[in-house]
Input
Amino acid sequence: MKKLFILTSILFLIAFPAMSQSKFAHVNTQTLIDTIPSRIKAINEINELSQKGEQELKELETQLEKAYNEYLTRKPTQSEAMNQYDESRLQKMQQDAQNREQEISTLLQNLSATMNEKTLKTVKDAIAIIASKKGLNYVIDENSTLYSTGVNITNEVITELLRIDALSAN
Output
């Protein structure tokens, strides 16, 4: 028992200085994310695609309304077979519009997810480079901490992010 206590004490004394040598820093992740030029460009492209998709869907809706109004005008004067044909055509147009809306939504979600993955990887890489240069063990997001008075490396990481982003653009 005495040997166990001595061994535990020695291990604690050896480990304690190592724990006290841990270096911490913090960054503002949102600021980092917002300063990446390729992300800003990607967001603008996604917004442009979204607007084009909305315009396309409005055009499909207008075509559907026009076809429906034409059907209502012709319905009393045409045969039952023609009415069924027109109704079938209208249902297909409506289904096509719904399918296209889903395609556009899926495309925008995939583009956004890809952009977010790339952005987070770039931010993590830049943080890792600066943390390594400064000999840091931990870098914490200041938005998720209650109190932080340590070293703020946000500006240094921004510089590294801009360098990485410029390299990846080439």
Remarks:
- The helical segments are 2-20, 29-34, 37-74, 80-134, 154-169.
